[in-house]
Specification:
Length: about 280
């Protein structure tokens, strides 16, 4: 029988898990927004639920935003960037190209211009330069990573993904729970081995959703509940406040989870891990 397969990590039995292992805390991130919709705006719906819900009020999240559209015509998108910052969320870099371009496929000078421009624009909203970047399509190489670092950006990938990015028009998931359970089971091995950095007494577990997805917006509270359920099912203790509720702590935790150098071990969710390897 084959053993040591990375997709089937050995999970310690609950009795073997050291009681000293810090609890996990879910670090929510949203990609691709903000939405420019004037009716049932998905970003607004998500911001409303993060602020007020039955699980934990005043949750703060990282928003990896598409900056270009918010500064080139869409007042709605721009106003939502302002709202995200004003409500204590953290703005971070995703794209500044007119479309969701893959940074690896941009000419070096275009990537340079894009990073410089995007950082300037986000600084206008938040008052300080963004420190986090998430590459479109999770795709990066030594060149793009070096460019990020030269611009003071650190790259955050993810532990869990709702796999709710819009692909070929599909924007729903029948498998929310089983998908997150399977991914958290993989994280559990790293957690039990102490391989996740501890920040303020917790091990941050990064979760990715997409705030442009109307299904995600309608179900965001369901997702929050499922995260707690799957952690419970896997006997992983969760912080008393399971989600971050302070921007400074959120940023510190996110920075601790960034990818420092090019390597092939970093987890890339869904079809993208298969495509880029
Ligand atoms: Zn994206």
């Amino acid at each position: 029988m084959l053993s040591g397969c990375s997709s089937n990590p050995q999970i310690p039995a609950p009795s073997l898990i050291k009681s000293s292992i810090p609890p996990i805390r879910f670090l929510l991130t949203f990609d691709d927004g903000p939405s420019g919709a004037t009716y049932k705006n998905s970003t607004e719906q998500i911001l409303d639920v993060l602020a007020k819900n039955e699980i934990q009020p005043d949750i703060k999240a990282v928003f990896f935003v598409q900056i270009h559209a918010a500064f080139n015509g869409s007042k709605k998108k721009h106003s939502l960037l302002v709202r995200e910052h004003a409500e204590g969320h953290l703005l971070a870099f995703h794209t500044t190209t007119p479309r969701h371009a893959n940074h690896r496929f941009l000419k070096p000078e275009d990537l340079e211009f894009s990073l410089q421009r995007g950082i300037e624009d986000l600084t206008k909203v938040s008052g300080s330069a963004p420190q986090l970047v998430r590459p479109p399509f999770w795709n990066y190489d030594e060149r793009t990573l070096e460019s990020y670092h030269r611009h003071g950006l650190k790259m955050l990938l993810t532990d869990l993904s709702a796999n709710d990015g819009k692909i070929y028009g599909v924007n729903w998931s029948w498998h929310k729970r089983s998908n997150l359970l399977a991914q958290l089971r993989r994280v559990k091995a790293d957690w039990a081995d102490g391989n996740i950095p501890t920040v303020n007494g917790h091990m941050p577990v990064v979760v990715t959703l997409h705030d442009l997805n109307s299904y995600t917006a309608r179900n965001i509270e369901v997702y929050l509940r499922i995260l707690l359920q799957v952690a419970h099912e896997l006997d992983m203790p969760v912080a008393a406040k399971p989600f971050y509720d302070n921007r400074t702590q959120l940023e510190k935790a996110a920075l601790a989870r960034t990818v420092k150098y090019m390597h092939n071990e970093a987890y890339i969710p869904g079809v993208w891990g298969w495509l880029w390897r």
